[in-house]
Amino acid sequence: MPWIKILHIATLLCWCAALLYLPALLLASARARGGEATFDVPAPALLRFFFTHVATPFALLAIMSGTLLFIVGRLTGGWLVLKLMAVSGMVLCHVLCGALIVRLEQEQYRFLAPASGLLAATSAALMLTVLVLVLSKPFD
């Protein structure tokens, strides 16, 4: 079981980092369209690659290892339900990152910058919620 925990924590760290990095890339790309900055690689291509080849595999591995940890460790408790709700919110943020990437590819820049900032803040709040719930295990 320790290897499952290590896998879960490692993949979760990478997924959380990606959930914070994707909105930052989206925000930079939205600003670049205004003439402030440029990328060597076209931003939509870079974002799509990072989303599909880095963020999504880490998200899937984190969720699968967490599910395995839950089953093998026979974890129960009210905190777990709240944690799973927060993780579901993180999944929703992940999906919304993908939707914003599609909007960027379609050159629909309206509200892209504020949506990216809101998405980063929401993702960070959900990550903090998961961390507090796992470490404190309230309602146990």
TrEMBL record:
Keyword Plastid included in the entry's annotation: no
Compartments in which it is found: Cell membrane
TM regions (residue ranges): 50-72, 84-104, 116-135
The keyword GTP-binding is annotated on this UniProt entry: no
Topological relation to the membrane, as annotated: Multi-pass membrane protein
Alphabetized InterPro entries for the sequence: HemJ-like (IPR005265)
Cofactor: heme b
EC number: 1.3.99.-
UniProtKB keywords: Cell membrane, Heme, Iron, Membrane, Metal-binding, Oxidoreductase, Transmembrane, Transmembrane helix
Enzyme class (EC, first level): oxidoreductase
Domain of life: Bacteria
Entry's cofactor comment: Binds 1 heme b (iron(II)-protoporphyrin IX) group per subunit.
Catalytic activity: protoporphyrinogen IX + 3 A = protoporphyrin IX + 3 AH2
Pathway in which this enzyme or protein is active: Porphyrin-containing compound metabolism; protoporphyrin-IX biosynthesis; protoporphyrin-IX from protoporphyrinogen-IX: step 1/1
Family: Belongs to the HemJ family.
Cited function: Catalyzes the oxidation of protoporphyrinogen IX to protoporphyrin IX.
Name the record gives this protein: Protoporphyrinogen IX oxidase
